[in-house]
Amino acid sequence: MKKLLPITLSLMFILTLQAQQQEVQQPQELQEPRPTTSLRVNVDLVELHVTVVDMQGRPIGGLQQDNFKITENSINQPITVFKHEDIPVSLGLVLDNSRSIEPRKARLDAAALSFVRNSNPDDETFIVHFDQEARLTQEFTADHALLDKQLKSATPFGQTAIYDAINLALDQMEKAQHPKKALLLITDGIDNSSKSTINQVLERVKRDQVMIFTVGLLSESGGVQAEDSLIRIADSSGGRAYFPETPEQAAAMIDLIARDLREQYTLAYLPTNAIRNGSWRSVRVEVMPPKGFLGKLTTNYRHGYYAPEQ
Predict the structure, then answer these.
(1) Looking at the predicted structure, is the pLDDT value of residue 277 above 70?
(2) DSSP the chain
(3) Which domains are delineated in the chain?
(4) pLDDT digits (tens, 9 = 90+) for 74-106
């Protein structure tokens, strides 16, 4: 037994050395990650996507950080992030598929597809169709041919469940890859089939960081009520509401929305109020025109948010 002791010790030494070598030579992905200089994102950072247009509704470029002022609950907030660039967006097409849309469906589908094609090539898009109920007809994709196929395959019928469709689209947005998110809602009528109510939808829209742009080709029957609902949904989300009279006007407005998304300014700040109490905080963005600019500038953005909770 004494003769085995040196062999045993030698074997233990060899095994220990091999283990050390394996630890040194282990694949990079298994090693403890090294510190990097990548940006650290604060969960309390409030990000705003701001559209600035002139009196003719044309996007205004070339503004600098000094042209903007942000207040939260009437208290000035130092801007910590300022960008004016075309960043990728996670998009959702929320499309009316009720019986009344049938005569205009092909032209509106073409306008919706144009909206996607005129956006950033790195965007991702899904489709929700709604009639008497809402359903996801296409998951997130960057394949325009697939989107076109799904648009053409929908057959209009039934009534109009707008609010359920928005809720379903917001559910799908939880899978988005990009921080900037937007929905394009196209409809020709008033909600008459949803299980959700307008107030439930508005409350959720205020909590979700998703801009909603609404395009309503509304008839005289129920038009005022439908218009009010679409405006409230768009305003609560930081989007805009449009009311064309023809599919051709709708196509022009949808192209304008695509351009708005690409021309938006991204501003962010760390709130001076660091209390995490879940309260609603009102946000206002003021734009000071550059020297020599004549006319009035109009802004569009999300006008508040719920503070994080403990």
Answers:
(1) yes
(2) -TTHHHHHHHHHHHHHHHHHHHHHTS-GGGSPPPP--PPPPPTT-EEEEEEEE-TTS-B-----GGGEEEEETTEEE---EEE-S----EEEEEEE-SGGGGGGHHHHHHHHHHHHHTS-TT-EEEEEEESSSEEEEEEEE--HHHHHHHHHH----S---HHHHHHHHHHHHTT-SSS-EEEEEEESS---S-SS-HHHHHHHHHHS--EEEEEE---STTHHHHHHHHHHHHHHHT--EE--SSHHHHHHHHHHHHHHHHH-EEEEE--S----B--EEEEEEEEPPPTT--S--EEE---EEEPPB-
(3) 46-85+278-306 (no CATH), 90-263 (3.40.50.410)
(4) 999 999 999 999 999 999 999 999 999 999 999
pLDDT per residue as tens digits for the range 125-149: 999 999 999 999 999 999 999 999 9
Percent of the chain with pLDDT over 90: 75
pTM of the model: 0.84
**Phi and psi at residue 240, in whole multiples of 5°?**
-140, 155
In this predicted structure, what is the pLDDT of residue 71? Answer: 98
Query: 124 near 176, Cβ under 8 Å?
Result: yes
Per the CB < 8 A criterion, the answer to whether 231 and 252 are in contact is no
